[in-house]
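Subject: two folds for Thursday's group meeting

Dear M.,

Sorry for the delay on this. The cluster queue was jammed most of the week, so I only got both jobs back this morning. I'm pasting them in the order they finished. Each block is the input sequence followed by the predicted structure tokens. Could you check whether the formatting survives your parser before we put anything on slides? The first protein is the one we discussed after the seminar.
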Amino acid sequence: MQDAPLERFYSVIPAGGVGSRLWPLSRADAPKFLHDLTGSGQTLLKDTWDRLSPISGEQRIMVVTGRAHRAAVETQLPDLHDRNIVLESEPRDSTAAIGLAAAILERREPGVIIGSFAADHVISGNALFRQAVVEAIAAADDGYIVTIGITPTEPAVGFGYIETGDDLEVSGADHVESVASFVEKPDLETARRYLASGRHLWNAGMFIARADRLLEEIARTKPDLHAGLIELAEAWDDPGTRGPAVDRIWPTLEKIAIDYAVAEPAAAAGRLAVVRGHFQWDDVGDFASLAKLNTAGRSGELAILGENARVLADASSGIVVSRANRVISLIGVHDIVVVDTPDALLVTTSEHAQRVKAVVDALRLGGSSDVL
């Protein structure tokens, strides 16, 4: 007889990506998840660990990250078990990262249920978060691949959306619905329609499933990728074979997001479910989001981040992030974004914050990798 679903649950934290829309604060050697972006006194990664450990237990959390970030991750998470850190030789996107975690854990513990939660999101309302995860675990045990959609509070254009379908009957979960479709980031008018409909939720990129079901879905849509993940998992727990297997197989794996390889095909086939999350959530996708997080409830104010920031402001609003020792003076500017680091300075506005990624792309094409 199998253990109860919650006892078979394992948290997976993919800690990858640079967060290029937060450049020059977020860099390849210091990505978004290794920063304190909310003034909590600890990094987003540590916040994620603290949110998940009461649900799965500290010994049942796996972190998937790049080899270059191992030391920083282990410093942030001293209770992370050595066998539960999975190191990527290079970024291959979320299907490879989450799929490898699923394959390793299923081989170690057949019947395991995994939940994937990004290392760099901001969440408040941990009791509501736990409630949603527990319901998602119950639905996953029923055979569904499950996502948690966030009840929208505004017509946001920076998030993808999940269109909900019919209610589903799941033992132990009273708020599970089918997923009718995934929708890319909309324009403002469309986002307003989504908000008014009550049928659309923000896509927070959280996925909960039995590991074997997740792997079945990858095998169905991406058989070569699945074969590579299984071969890696078979070699993983043998230190003598792991390194050569990673060096040989990992670079050949297809780079594709789990939304496209798993979630969208599963939704089309009626195998994807969603639980509505009523907690506060933000993926901190750009400096406009960061400014809102740090001026919540204080309309028209200026957010200042940086332990030793030296900022003088008069009739100004927006956000200043200071990692240098310069005095920054702002006079009569609104919705301004200033990010000052020792080797790079960004000045833009909240309206254009999403365009920062284009600067990063231009620097990369121009060979300026020293500031990336």
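Second protein, same layout:
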Amino acid sequence: MTLDLFAATDPYQPIAPGAMLLHGFALADADAILADVQAIAARAPFRRMFTPGGQAMSVAMSNCGSLGWISDRHGYRYVAADPDSGQPWPPLPPRLLRLAGAAAERAGFPAFVPDACLINRYAPGTRMSLHQDRDEQDFTQPIVSVSLGLSVTFLFGGLARSDKAARLTLSHGDVLVWGGPARLRFHGVLPLLDGRHPATGACRINLTFRKAG
């Protein structure tokens, strides 16, 4: 089932207990956010990480904040320094902190202050398989996900991998927040379709804010 939220009267749509899609919430700041992403990537370039099994991930990744998420043969985890440079990850820009906090509050999670932002760059054909975000210390804190550039079909499943997943269209400027009873729901992204967006070209940029430490 694909949820068509573009025609909804209220652009802020609950999609499950603890989960809300904020259509267009980041649109006004999109250009400035992309400039922040460009500055972050200049210090911590996008790279394709490896799974513990040694397979290269299709999505290119970077991080900002006091902690950054990495994957390698030793597993999935958060670390304070970029393993490629040995330097601390770039700090979270104030604009991004404000956006994440405001989106979380609008979805019912006040006082959210993330310490990690994983930045994913999707090229056409790349995808993210169903997974849970379980590497954080405190599951009472929500996940805030910002979509920029090409639209994508997001899969929002249940608490078991086998549960049927709803399909959500995430477009430029949309923000998805999930926490509380939805915090450990499986989620993923179908392969990105070919296309070009005026703001990002032939890619999608996704910023995922977490309280990791």
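Two things I noticed about the second structure. The CA atoms of residues 7 and 42 lie 38 Å apart. The chain has a mean pLDDT of 95.

Cheers,
T.
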